[in-house]
């Protein structure tokens, strides 16, 4: 098993901060009050998680698109089509209130994980990719679940 390189691991973990912060501000009225006063109401609870979740799903579409460039023929075409799905999901499925948006983001990140696995199985992703994606997806879905189900 190949270790996750340090830079992607650190950057991936740092990318969890808005999800973790959103979950904390759901669970802690003091953190929510401080965050709303110091950062603004868009940067606490569901608002930070939903906005950032949309951005990350769109970003991950770009990552998958990059993987698709390594393929050829029909697999490349399939890869390009699959690569746009996370961004489209984020665009179309995150309206209708914070609970529904959080649940749809959970499904979006779980679907993204399946796409990651497909690209990895085709040999288009780095050998360490799934280890990183499993870790990040687990934390993201737990954080989103705090807002959706608690």
UniProtKB/TrEMBL annotation:
It holds the Pfam family DUF3429. The chain crosses the membrane at residues 49-67, 79-96, 102-125, 132-149. InterPro entries: DUF3429. It comes from the Bacteria. The keyword Transferase does not apply. The keyword rRNA processing does not apply. Keywords: Membrane, Transmembrane, Transmembrane helix. This is DUF3429 domain-containing protein. It comes from Ruegeria pomeroyi.
């Amino acid at each position: 098993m190949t270790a996750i390189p340090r830079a992607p691991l650190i950057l991936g973990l740092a990318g969890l901060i808005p999800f973790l912060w959103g979950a904390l501000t759901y669970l802690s009225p003091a953190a929510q009050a401080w965050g709303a006063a110091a950062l603004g109401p868009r940067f606490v609870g569901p608002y930070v998680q939903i906005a950032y979740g949309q951005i990350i799903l769109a970003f991950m579409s770009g990552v998958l698109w990059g993987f698709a460039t390594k393929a050829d023929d029909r697999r490349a075409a399939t890869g390009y089509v699959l690569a746009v799905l996370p961004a489209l999901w984020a665009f179309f499925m995150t309206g209708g209130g914070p609970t529904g948006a959080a649940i749809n983001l959970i499904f979006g990140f779980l679907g993204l994980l399946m796409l990651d696995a497909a690209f990895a199985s085709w040999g288009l992703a780095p050998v360490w990719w799934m280890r990183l994606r499993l870790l990040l997806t687990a934390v993201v879905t737990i954080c989103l679940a705090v807002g959706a189900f608690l």
